[in-house]
């Protein structure tokens, strides 16, 4: 089986419903999601301890969901069902809450890094934010399936919380941004 089609040799690609230039905002958005998916796959190669093995399956599920998001962005034809659901977003929210309860309270911004797995997850978080910005730009001109945007927004929060959990498991402390003020308060009395 040949994987090349030569149909893109003139700088266009197919969406579900029409052809567009390869630099179209819709292609940029799902291409950035593909980049994010690749970085998550790379991060998964560092999840080799007994304590982090359970996260591997969770990230693999997210990789499938990112394919769903990218596929939904490629649909411009009416009548094609979307795959990204509100349940996927709710599942991320539950995991974010679980992760944040199992990590030390935040007071300041933290620097991306720590263990190798956490550092790569922080990179994925930054790319998730870029993917979200691409989708926002796309929304200014075209209709999109809105759960894709919400999913990417929650996913970046999930990845932030996950990086912190991975560092806790690896017994690596988060490094606070030292020139920053306290920005996260758990009560009104804190300064």
UniProtKB/TrEMBL annotation:
GO terms for biological process: cobalamin biosynthetic process. GO terms for molecular function: ATP binding; corrinoid adenosyltransferase activity. Its EC number is 2.5.1.17. Pathway: Cofactor biosynthesis; adenosylcobalamin biosynthesis; adenosylcobalamin from cob(II)yrinate a,c-diamide: step 2/7. Residues 3-165 form the Cobalamin adenosyltransferase-like domain. SUPFAM superfamilies: Cobalamin adenosyltransferase-like (SSF89028). Keywords: ATP-binding, Cobalamin biosynthesis, Nucleotide-binding, Transferase. It catalyses: 2 cob(II)yrinate a,c diamide + reduced [electron-transfer flavoprotein] + 2 ATP = 2 adenosylcob(III)yrinate a,c-diamide + 2 triphosphate + oxidized [electron-transfer flavoprotein] + 3 H(+); 2 cob(II)alamin + reduced [electron-transfer flavoprotein] + 2 ATP = 2 adenosylcob(III)alamin + 2 triphosphate + oxidized [electron-transfer flavoprotein] + 3 H(+). The keyword ATP-binding applies. The keyword Membrane does not apply. Gene3D superfamilies: Cobalamin adenosyltransferase-like. PANTHER family: CORRINOID ADENOSYLTRANSFERASE, CORRINOID ADENOSYLTRANSFERASE MMAB. Belongs to the Cob(I)alamin adenosyltransferase family. This is Corrinoid adenosyltransferase. The lineage of its organism: Bacteria, Bacillati, Bacillota, Bacilli, Bacillales.
